[in-house]
Amino acid sequence: MKNLSTIEKLDKLSSEVPELMQRIIDLWSKEVLFTWRWWFGFVLTILTWLFWYKTHKKESRYRLLTAGFFVMVVSVSFDSIGVQLGFWSYRFEVLPLIPAYLPYDVALMPVVVMSLIQFKPNSSPYLKGILFGLLTAYIGEPIIVWLKIYKPIIWHFYYSIPIYFTIFLIAHWLTTRKYFTELS
């Protein structure tokens, strides 16, 4: 690759991705799909959203979903970046094409944040954010490590606390904008 131009080097590296992805998909379809860990993630995703649907304040639905959508986008993005940089890995993804654990990023994270926002809406968002960061980093992450779904490589649980805290605060801020009706 020494005598190749930058474009040729990038093209060569990019051309290796489909082969690697095909190997991952083959392994996933033979050894991950429909295992108990796969079903765990699939059912967790559905049950989490059913819980939210049954318990959320209907009059605040769009306000909360705005926060939830923000949390999903940020969580999937950060998770994908972390996997691609080798900070951590996932072994039993529900979908193999996205390098993130979707049950965590598109169900647990947004639903927990939305639930915290609507629970005691006049409580300190900073206190809720700290609580969210600590519980997610020191209970949520260790559980998925224990289940052998998540493997931190060069990541420590406590690195996640300020990230979770910031995600919560921004999500909370989004729900307090004046273009929504007030939470009661």
Automatic annotation (TrEMBL):
InterPro entries: CBO0543-like. Keywords: Membrane, Transmembrane, Transmembrane helix. This is Uncharacterized protein. The chain crosses the membrane at residues 36-53, 65-88, 100-117, 129-147, 153-174.
